[in-house]
Design a protein that fits this description.
Elements: H1 3-7, E1 10-15, H2 24-33, E2 37-42, H3 52-59, H4 75-82, E3 85-91, H5 93-101, H6 107-114, E4 119-123, H7 127-131, H8 133-144, E5 148-149, E6 153-156, E7 162-166, H9 170-182, E8 194-200, E9 204-207, E10 210-212, H10 219-230, E11 234-240, E12 250-255, H11 258-269, E13 274-277, E14 284-286, E15 306-308, H12 312-318, E16 325-332, H13 336-350, E17 354-359, E18 370-371, E19 373-377, E20 382-384, E21 388-389, H14 390-404
Parallel strand pairs: 1-2, 1-3, 3-4, 4-5, 8-11, 8-13, 11-12, 13-16, 16-17
Antiparallel strand pairs: 6-7, 9-10, 14-15, 17-19, 18-21, 19-20
């Protein structure tokens, strides 16, 4: 056996019998091309949608749906024991029911029973099936046992139907899968918790074609949402003008202005366990909105009168229920010590539990893949972190949230 192949992380990709099985081909490609050794284990029904030859060609591994093929290798035990991650995509209502109740009538369900590694389910089914009490109960059982069960996406289903039940995009399932693998499996310390995350930058319209905005890309907020999903949380993501694909498993609310961000966030935060204000709301907005495009007159520029927008984080802090953890962000252009001092003032003003202070600018933080931050706590803690990927910083922030949850 090739020693390099042995060193590659072992992933079992289970595929249940749904029309979304074709999307698992893209997920398989992403896993294989990023250096994972993937063994595809389809159900018999899945093979009616995508044939065995396709899975074998894309994975470079043998494919079987039953426990009898290669019985001398005891695959129904070996695959689960050796796997470092099991991903089931799509996971149908039938597959979720079998997994929840320990049924094992094929190779995939046997593998799920023997796996002692992180298990990720990406459900796909019609809305009525997802919302049925039996399915909801099965999902609750799996999550209670430590499995990550993503929330389905909202969109076009089979036929003309539209609703919640669509398989999340393969790239986003892949992102959650890699987070689960990154530290030998993330702790499920947010299982059963509701985490609200804001992301992006708001825009305040001047006239029908112009606005006041900022450079925030939303990448840090999306990384936090994705990491919270991987740690078992139910995530509501309030996204302001973000051109990124929806994170798998998160319920996404799209907004444009600071007032829309405020309304959506206050509503979502009422019963949330944690709120992470990673968005960059505009501090000011035009006092009046001009209903037609402002024209240049004799080359002179118009004068804009600005008014202050509400401080959403401060409003959340003033009304924060007992036990809720509030995380604010402070985007600063000052040197580190001045930035930290400003961040401490904001921490107190907003009555937050944590504040993430980072330096921003044209080429810093906004739109970048990495971030460097200092996390200040209301308990007097100060964690100066090195430059990290935004995914890794997201986990550092969630570590501190988990420590503070009752």
């Amino acid at each position: 056996m090739d020693q390099h192949a042995e060193a590659r992380p072992r992933v079992v990709l289970g595929v249940a019998g749904g029309i979304a099985a074709y999307k698992a081909c893209e997920l398989l490609r992403l896993l294989a091309e990023s250096g994972h050794r993937v063994r595809v284990v389809p159900t018999a029904a899945a093979l009616t949608f995508v044939g065995e030859a396709t899975w074998a060609a894309l994975s470079g591994q043998p494919v079987s749906a039953d426990v009898w093929t290669g019985a001398h290798e005891v695959p129904h035990v070996r695959l689960g024991r050796e796997a470092e991650l099991v991903v089931v995509a799509p996971a149908t209502a039938d597959l979720l029911a079998k997994a929840a109740h320990g049924l094992a009538d094929d190779l995939l369900t046997n593998t799920l029973l023997t796996a002692r590694c992180p298990v990720l389910f990406a459900p796909a089914m019609h809305t009525e099936m997802w919302e049925h009490p039996a399915t909801r109960a099965n999902v609750a059982i799996l999550r209670e046992r430590g499995a990550v069960v993503l929330e389905p996406a909202v969109g076009r289903l089979t036929g003309a139907d539209t609703g919640k039940g669509r398989l999340p995009e393969p790239a986003e399932i892949f992102a959650v899968a890699t987070r689960l693998l990154c530290r030998g499996g993330l702790p499920q310390d947010l299982a059963g918790r509701h985490v609200v995350v804001t992301a992006g930058g708001t825009r305040e319209p001047i006239d029908p074609v112009r606005f006041i905005g900022n450079r925030s890309s939303g990448k840090q907020g999306y990384a936090i949402a994705r990491a919270a999903v991987a740690r078992g949380a139910r995530v509501t993501l309030v996204a302001a003008n973000v051109a990124l694909p929806d994170p798998a498993g998160a319920d996404v609310i799209r907004v444009e202005t600071t007032e829309q961000l405020r309304t959506a966030t206050l509503a979502a935060a009422e019963r949330a366990d944690a709120v992470v204000m990673a968005a960059a709301p505009a501090d000011f907005r035009p006092a009046t909105f001009v209903t037609s495009k402002i024209k240049k007159v004799d080359g002179t520029a118009p004068t804009l009168e600005l008014v202050t927008n509400p401080d959403i984080a401060a409003e959340l802090g003033a009304a924060k229920p007992v036990g809720q953890v509030l995380v604010a962000f402070a985007a600063e252009t000052a040197d580190l010590e001045r930035a930290v001092a400003n961040g401490h003032e904001k921490l107190l003003k907003k009555r937050a539990d944590l504040i993430v202070v980072n330096e921003v600018g044209v080429d810093k933080t906004f739109g970048a893949e990495r971030n460097q931050a200092v996390i200040l706590g209301a308990d007097g803690s100060r964690d100066a972190l090195p430059e990290l990927s935004k995914d890794d910083l997201a986990d550092r922030i969630l570590d501190r949230i988990a420590d503070r949850l009752p």
